[in-house]
Design brief:
heterotrimer, B: 350 residues, mainly alpha, ABC transporter involved in vitamin B12 uptake, BtuC, 15 helices, 0% strand, C: 256 residues, alpha/beta, Rossmann fold, 2 domains, six-stranded mixed beta sheet, 33% helix
Chain lengths: 314, 350, 256
């Protein structure tokens, strides 16, 4: 009897939920004419705009950087709490985002015609926004530079800056090619340890295959310690033993924004024997250059390449 | 002699009957005030006359309409249902286990649901209606599965000793929590999504979540409300309850399943919100006594109101940021309850 | 009226009651005596349907008890337990009303008739004056009277009492048993009462059953059962049995 009851309730639930969207009292959907361009976004949704977006809200720092880079800064009317680059972005109103919670009322009150989401936003957040009648575009994290260029092109088109976008992509390509050219003749690759957290210095966190940083390290002419150790996770926790035995030539402190310095690394028990520490090849680094999936990834590439092969970049 | 026999036949009534409806009227009033606050308060200031105009469809401001109809009202409904579900189940569990520390998560519903949600989040569902409903559905199913597993293990022949239930429930809770933590650590990409769900996702559900949750809460709480008499009997122990005519194992199973269904559904859509299920029944008990026929419905109303107030606080305290509602219930609930407890220390109310 | 043939109760692999056969006449008061752990309480629990038992016969007025559900059984027999685990928050009034459960619907709705019966029961045990007080605030003797009232409110022909005098002091012990004796006589109740005090059993019971290690060692009137040899054999202590100086009962005195 209990089984039957559960089945009935399950059906009721499914039926009830199916009725939900039909009964939702929303404001009238904006009418739009068939468009010159519609995109399939990172969640597989087809997003269509009748005209280039004039009021954009960005839900991630990377999206804010992309918007400003393609020249759409003036059309950006709101940003998430953590967007801080470029400096003009800071003066835009914040719509939340700390502790994963966005202020839906603020977003609605801004009346955007496009909300740019990123992979740090959940499908539930996207749905909550579409339930309000807003147009949301979900930009997946790029896995390669080509993906990055595609994202830039998409955002440029969505905001009506196709030519600025193409120019940006062209210049980025050129810079990447320049780095490739300088790195290509060099045969030796320094072993690099990229640290993202060492609250427990015996078990620091690093980056591995699947993360863009890993790609950048390789592209910049380095050999990622994590990849050499055969670890497959994108954000693994490694043991000090692994670091010591791999004996990296260079240590990049991606956690320098949280106060880690070369001096503090040298003081960690067990770290002093590592080649990078002994040769003073421990460098503070702005992690935002490699962790935000926007145009500054190329800045990150160049910065890493200069660290790994300073001789080639004199 | 005749007088004695007459007195024997018509003894005086022991005391004048209390106005039975007073606690209900007060609680409903409290609930209405909470609902009003929840609708009227938010990070965008909407003057009360505009709130009224928008609700009756006479507002010219579409933004107000969106905010009220698509953000505040579904959120109010979801919080109301969740608070009612948690407090009603909490009161039932306290009666079932005869334990003042019992809360709706005692025998593993929440940990099981959390595990199911985290597992479902690790699968790349398509962005579709069913894809998004997959998380709450998985949470609900694993929550119920955990309870049934605990029940099956705790059974001894015909009866279900409460001690066994608590022990098995604690074991499964710990196991599921550990597994959930492990999975969350492994899938660093979805960590924020899992955390967001676990801490309470009342802001995101929308009307879909409300409509999906509604039948469970209504049916579950209705079943618990009519179980008040059985719970009263169970306070005297299984033996005495049976000797007074209650089919104890059937009643306990019934209450357990109803309370767990309600809790699992609430957790599936609102995440794990603590303290409401534990504290609200105690407050009701302190003021209105331990008769479960009244305690359960009063806890239901009180729980809805209390969680609504907590949600308003969550939205207001660090506006425009928002605190996770579970933090508000813990921070605000504990001192409040200590204050209530101090006032009733010597009444032997439990 | 109560017919028991070959009743066995085991907890797990341990056999607590072995082949208990007993017949209780209507209106009779039968006391169950025996050392601790002999099975007195278990017999009461088995009769009231709370302990799983196997038997050849277990019937009341010829009707077998085995097919009955809890409510039907509760209309036939009411149990007065020891006062050990009472929820302190319930009032006396609420507690006694719960005795009406076998006659209520599942919501537990009380009618005026139920209230009248509850009031009557409280009057009989002289507890009406503190009907509004919470059970947790009462003394042991008062609590026991409330439980008796609850059992009376259940309006059953059979009353089972499980060591009701254990935690009471002298005046409450005697007072309670006097009350039970008087009520049983007035209303022709069949009473089965587990006691540990031999003198009280001799005074208030029509017949005694001496239970040792789960078996009935002796069954009969107090005069038949309570002889020094039997008592010494069961309780391992020498006693003297004599006629009570001013009551028509026996007096059992342990020797030094």
């Amino acid at each position: 009897m209990f089984r039957k009851l559960t089945f009935v309730l399950l059906i009721l639930m499914l039926v009830g939920s199916a009725c939900g969207p039909v009964m939702t009292p929303t404001s009238a959907l904006p009418t739009f004419t068939p468009l010159p361009v519609s995109f399939s976004d990172g969640l597989g949704r087809i997003v269509a705009l009748s005209h280039p977006a004039q009021r954009v809200v960005s839900l991630a720092p990377s999206n804010t950087e992309i918007l400003f880079a393609v020249g759409a800064g003036a059309q950006t009317i709101g940003r998430d709490e953590f967007s801080d680059y470029p400096a003009e972005a800071k003066s835009l109103p914040s719509v939340g985002g700390s502790m994963g919670k966005y202020n839906l009322e603020q977003i609605a009150a801004l009346k955007p015609d496009l909300v740019l989401a990123a992979e740090i936003n959940t499908p539930e957040q996207v749905k909550a926004l579409t339930d309000l009648g807003l147009t949301v575009f979900y930009l997946s994290n790029p896995k390669t530079f080509e993906d990055l260029y595609t994202n830039l092109e998409t955002v440029a088109t969505l905001t009506g800056h196709e030519s600025a976008g193409s120019q940006l992509i062209a210049s980025l390509r050129a810079r990447v090619a320049a780095v490739d050219a300088k790195i290509a003749p060099i045969s030796s690759r320094p072993t690099v340890f990229y640290e993202i957290d060492a609250s427990d210095p015996a078990k620091p966190y690093s980056i591995g295959p699947g993360s863009f940083v890993n790609l950048l390290i390789a592209r910049a002419g380095g050999a990622n310690l994590v990849e050499l150790a055969g670890i497959k996770d994108a954000y693994p926790q490694v043991s000090l033993e692994q670091v010591v035995s791999a004996n990296p030539t260079i240590i990049v402190l991606g956690d320098s924004m949280w106060g880690t310095t070369a001096e503090s690394v040298a003081q960690r028990p067990g770290w002093d024997k590592i080649a990078a520490v002994q040769n003073k090849q421990v460098f503070a680094f702005d992690d935002n250059l490699v962790s935000r999936p926007g145009p500054r990834l190329v800045d990150g590439l160049e910065a890493l390449a200069k660290l790994f092969h300073p001789g080639a970049f004199k | 002699m005749v007088e004695a026999r007459l007195a024997y036949r018509n003894p005086p009534r022991p005391y004048p009957p209390m106005k039975k409806s007073l606690p209900f009227l007060l609680s409903i009033l409290f609930l209405l005030i909470s609902v009003l606050l929840s609708i009227a308060i938010g990070s965008v200031f909407i003057p009360l006359p505009d709130v009224w105009k928008t609700l009756i469809g006479q507002s010219a401001n579409p933004t107000f309409a969106t905010i009220l109809w698509d953000i505040r009202l579904p959120r109010t409904a979801l919080v109301l249902l969740t608070g009612a579900a948690l407090a009603g189940s909490g009161a039932s569990y306290q009666g079932l286990f005869r334990n003042p520390l019992a809360d709706p998560y005692l025998i593993g519903v929440a940990s099981g649901a959390g595990l199911g949600a985290v597992i479902a989040m690790s699968i790349q569902w398509p962005y579709s209606f069913f894809g998004l409903m997959a998380i709450p559905m998985a949470a609900f199913l694993t929550g119920m599965a955990t309870v049934l597993l605990v029940y099956w293990i705790a059974r001894v022949g015909q009866s279900v000793p409460t001690t066994n239930l608590i022990l098995a429930g604690t074991v499964f809770s710990s196991f599921a929590s550990a597994l959930t933590s492990f999975l969350m650590l492994r899938s660093s990409g979805d960590l924020h999504r899992a955390l967001g769900w676990l801490l309470g996702g009342v802001s995101l559900g929308g009307w879909d979540s409300v409509l999906a949750l509604l039948p469970y809460v209504i049916v579950g709480l209705a079943l618990l409300t009519v179980s008040g008499h059985a719970l009263n009997l169970l306070q005297f122990g299984d033996d005495q309850a049976q000797q007074m005519g209650l089919n104890v194992s059937r009643a306990k199973t019934f209450i357990l399943i109803a309370a767990s269904l309600t809790t699992a559904a609430a957790v599936a859509f609102a995440g794990i919100i603590g303290f409401v299920g534990l504290i609200v029944p105690h407050v009701v008990r302190l003021w209105w006594g331990g008769d479960y026929r009244r305690l359960i419905p009063l806890s239901i109303i009180g729980g809805a109101a209390a969680l609504l107030l907590a949600d308003v606080l969550a939205r207001v305290v660090i506006a425009p940021q928002e605190l996770p509602i579970g933090i508000v219930t813990a921070l605000a609930g504990s001192p409040f309850f200590l204050w209530v407890l101090r006032r009733a220390k010597n009444q032997g109310y439990w | 009226m109560i017919e028991i043939k070959n009743l066995n109760v085991s907890y797990g692999s341990r056999l607590i009651l072995k082949n208990i056969s007993l017949h209780v006449k209507k209106g009779e008061t039968l006391a169950l005596l025996g050392p601790n752990g002999s099975g007195k309480s278990t017999l009461i629990r088995a009769l009231s349907g709370v302990a799983p038992a196997s038997f050849d016969t277990l019937s009341l007025s010829g009707r077998s008890l085995s097919g009955l559900n809890a409510a039907a059984r509760a209309r036939l027999m009411a149990v007065v337990p020891q006062t050990v685990s009472l929820p302190p928050a319930f009032t006396v009034w609420e507690t006694v009303l719960l005795g009406r459960t076998p006659y209520l619907n599942f919501l537990g709705q009380i009618s005026a008739k139920d209230e009248a019966i509850a009031r009557c029961a409280l009057t009989k045990v002289d507890a009406l004056s503190f009907a509004k007080r919470r059970v947790g605030q009462l003394s042991g003797g008062e609590q026991q009277r409330v439980l008796l009232a609850r059992a009376l409110a259940q309006s059953t022909p059979v009353l089972l009492l499980d060591e009701p005098t254990t935690h009471l002091d002298l005046q409450h012990q005697v007072g309670l048993l006097e009350l039970v004796h008087k009520l049983a006589r007035d209303e022709n109740l069949t009473v089965l009462i587990a006691l540990h005090d031999l003198n009280l059993a001799a005074r208030y019971a029509d017949r005694l059953a001496l239970i040792v290690d789960g078996e009935i060692k002796a069954l009969g009137t107090p005069k038949e059962v309570l002889n020094p040899e039997m008592i010494a054999a069961v309780y391992h202590w020498p006693v003297q049995v004599m006629q009570h100086p001013f009551l028509d009962t026996l007096l059992i005195l342990p020797e030094g």
